[in-house]
């Protein structure tokens, strides 16, 4: 108690002393000092922005966000610096300030630099391509920093050492374009030291293969230049040799490399550890070993390896139709040897012709098949992948779970009827969980009915957790597209009864945000007006996220920028700046192509029996002319059969209308079977995209054509040396739903073209022409694909020979040579073309080898004909051709070799026509 009282008195005395000191401070402190403490807060008198030492542009000044007259605040300056860094435009930001009441701020900004091109100068021959591929830190189009330049030098040194040039001297030079942020980088490379591979030896151990034989397999040789990269390839090659002998876990490595710097020699010691020999046996079925071998290349849990091998074999056999195959595996171990045996009982091979369902209530059979992607195929070719059959139960269960059936169960059974099997799926749907009510908590910016219309869940509808998560994503996207940023949504689910739930979406709404400024940077050549035309957003609009993405896509579609970046920079509560950062691509492109062609399609592989001539193509393209995203190109082709020069002007807008337009002028000479012509012309084409897969084209064309030889009887419009002028207007509709333009496997392509040639500008033309084409690709099963191409052409009026329809050849009717299908001239027996075309191509493509996935075989059937007049069109007059071929998939389409027999040409006595070409039938 005494101690507590003393502490209380001491505390009171301290408080009295502090009060006296505080009073004395106000009584005796100088008044001048007091007035200084309550002086007004400094304000911003001036804001200067300098970028790379020069005054900043208006858009850059807008990024700073600090205005003259605002109170000075270090917090505000820090936020401005953070916002500037967020744009990704600057590598360094400094802010200078003056003292006093009127503060002047100077923002010193350093732009990020981009690598425009990289060049190499070496004192010896070295692949420029390899040097470029060795660089990872610096690439054309990447950001440039001094640190990255240093890393690039080290990467080059490593690449050169891998090629046998040790300790090379590399000097780097940079040159900045004063008109842009581009940097050109140049490396000067001085030759490093080379070493002679004096001796290759193997460390003592169980080599199993004689040392001399191993050395023979290596490309690194003694008394030759030492190249580490070549040695790495040798080690991989030697490992492959041991793998082929059954030593799947063999290790071959460089144990030691001794360098004699004075003599410039190197001595290598290699180490080989064969490991266990692994023998894999598959009994009872033909199964490719490369299906199983990779499992055992590493040290694994043996139980897992056996089970995985069994699963792969069963899966493989099911795809082949052995639905009830069984596999039993075992492992036997001896000294340095492992024997793995898979005993297979593959059973009988079956073809499943149909599948059916039992227990369906919620789904209809056709609807369920469509959902599973197993809609009816072509009947006489159809069959269902056996492996897919066994995976369908899980897929069906997922579908049911998504529709509110969490306890749905599916069992697969097979029903045999004579020699055919039908797959029967027994489905126990179980009870369906449903939504009793949906409500929204915390939502004030939008009405509940507006939010409800954005989701797929509905009152009385199915309840599933994945569906609720998708709804949350839809609602968050809706808020973003309405300009609201920072919204967070969670779902609260309450059980209201047996299989009945209420869903409450708790919405923590963000801030309604509008676009304050749209800032564009990086357009050194491109006009600002060209960019503004693509903007779907403007200052004062809500920050609609979809429109921001659409703006980005539109700018990328111009094809003049190598990079388009759009950043949203929050400036204040409810306001943000949109920063569009552009990087312009290369403006000039030149190309040259050289090849060979035959006068006629090759009939044989014997080159000396085909008339071969050179073919060359040259082109030059200048893009983004006048900063308007326009393009000027010149393309010329020279070959035995044709010569062509085309000058083209392309622009994304036509008198301010968003219409891709082309103005072309051309001169050409082409040789056909019955005639040859010189033509000059001018055309104006407009292209309008209605959607991702639908295009509309319109073309106004004027041409003047002169036949320089004619091997058919002259007619009113077909006269040799007779200049024929044509003015025409055409319209086209194109819909492309193929999965791949060059190598389609599924989908369809539809085009329709109508052309009217009318007498204008003293033109002799007066005809109508229409052409329709439809292609459909249908995947069947196990890599088998069926396709059909149908074409119909109709014309009327004064059609000269070069405007008529022709057929025959590798891309048309394969039962006749190029242009040979249809009516012939009475005297010369040369094709004269026609005013009606009907043609169908049917093709079944199938894999030839599981090891060569790009190789496939094909069986085709072509039927069609050319008719002199529309009234002559007769389906009984169609010609037929049958054949088979081989396809090899390339990035430009399949390389095709076809053999075709014309079923209406008995005079050929069964001799086929051979065609070699690239690309699909078109």
Structural domains: how many: 8
Number of helices: 15
Uncertain ranges: 1-11, 17-36, 377-382, 602-610
Structural class: alpha+beta
Strand content: 35-45%
What Rg, in angstroms, do the CA atoms define? 39 Å
Task: Give the CATH level 1 class of the largest domain.
Answer: Mainly Beta
Q: Outline, from the CA principal axes?
A: globular
Distance between the termini: 108 Å
The CATH architecture assignment of the largest domain turns out to be: Beta Barrel
Count the beta strands. Answer: 42
Find the CATH superfamily of the largest domain. Answer: membrane protein fhac: a member of the omp85/tpsb transporter family
Strand order of the largest sheet: 27-28-29-30-31-32-33-34-35-36-37-38-39-40-41-42
Describe this structure in words.
Strands 27-28-29-30-31-32-33-34-35-36-37-38-39-40-41-42 form a 16-stranded antiparallel beta sheet, with no helix packed on it. Strands 2-1-4-3 form a 4-stranded mixed beta sheet, with helices on one face. A 4-stranded mixed beta sheet has the order 6-5-8-7. The chain is globular and about 110 Å long. It has 8 domains: 43-111, Ubiquitin-like (UB roll), CATH 3.10.20.310; 113-190, Ubiquitin-like (UB roll) (Roll), CATH 3.10.20.310; 196-273, membrane protein fhac (Ubiquitin-like (UB roll), Roll), CATH 3.10.20; 277-345, membrane protein fhac (Ubiquitin-like (UB roll)); 352-428, Ubiquitin-like (UB roll); 434-511, Ubiquitin-like (UB roll) (Roll); 513-584, membrane protein fhac (Ubiquitin-like (UB roll)); 672-918, Porin (Beta Barrel). The longest helix is centred in the first third of the chain and has 27 residues, at 2-28. It starts with a helix and ends with a strand. The chain has 15 helices and 42 strands. It is α+β, with helices and mostly antiparallel strands and 922 residues long.
